[in-house]
Amino acid sequence: MKRGLIFLAPFIILIISVFGGFYWWNDGSKAPSQDFVPRDFLVVKGRSAIQIGEDLYQKGLIKNKLAFKIYVQLTSQADKIQTGQFRLSPNFSLIKVVDTLTKPPLEVWVTVPEGLRREEVVEKVIKGLEIDKENQASFRKEFLKASEDQEGFLFPDTYLFAWDASANAVVKKMTSTFDTKFRQFETLISDKKTAGGLDKKGVVALASIIERETKTDAERPIVAGILYNRLEIGMALQADAAVQYAVATINCLALVQNCKDWWPILTKDDLAVSSPFNTYKFRGLPPSPIASPGLSSLKAVVNPEKTNYLYYIHDPKGQIHYAETLAEHNQNIRIYLGR
Questions:
Q1: Which helix (H) or strand (E) holds 84?
Q2: Tens digits of per-residue pLDDT, 225-249?
Q3: CATH 3.30.1490.480 is held by the domain 30-105
Q4: Taking CA 259 as the corner, what is the angle to CA 162 and CA 318, rounded to the nearest 5 degrees?
Q5: Cβ atoms of 106 and 84 closer than 8 Å
Q6: DSSP 43
Q7: 238's torsion region: left (phi>0), alpha (psi -120 to 50) or beta?
Q8: Structure confidence by residue, pLDDT tens digits, 257-274
């Protein structure tokens, strides 16, 4: 009798474990409540399945976070969870929650980096929203028309846009974000002694040049100071980025979506291009910004570093070199660029 019990013990334990596991899963995968009111749930890019499960649990959208983790791993759906805004309800089962998260979200993340001109920004949005080819041309046209006077004011950031967002809505959100971010500088630029006495448009124009002309946050206040020094003595800004903007505008005027390079390598002839954006021919700031500057460049313009430098170059490794005189600058060119 005892031997029989000993023989049956593993099977009894197995049966108990199976039924116990089934009960645990059945309970853990149920909806956390009968509340059917939908809630918005945001999946941020870079969040792991474990972190997403924790977020869902904390918001009362799943009953058991361990059950969520096991389910998405066993069904190989952990890597299929999308990023963006979803609409979930507490009366969803765990399986329905996961199924919803692996389908396209209501809203999607779109990243627009610093230093892009409007024509480049719209292509980032088109790609991010996965706009169908047949609708791209009309979206592009609407975006460029809506942002016609907003070069430099489309704030570079990571946005959450609805899949069906109109171009006008995108432009409005980006310019509104710029206004919010720029608010911290309003008081400073109202003081004419700050930011070289530049108004808002002037600050953004100079910041857009710095965004394109520099490579690191550390350089930007110094380069801002250099450009202010040039403005103060009536020297031409001689900013290649502004000339690139002028040349590309001329070359790509009829090829907006097919332009190969919005920031071309300049030739000697390019430096003579007839354009108010040619900062070699015309003194002072260009008539408008040339790209969208980030906060770092805006801060540099409002808080420049005062030096006696008038020149700067980057070597092939990206290291910047400053000079106070033209002779020193030419020497840097010979040493670091071999010209």
A1: strand 84-88
A2: 999 999 999 999 999 999 999 999 9
A3: yes
A4: 90
A5: yes
A6: E
A7: left
A8: 667 789 999 999 999 999
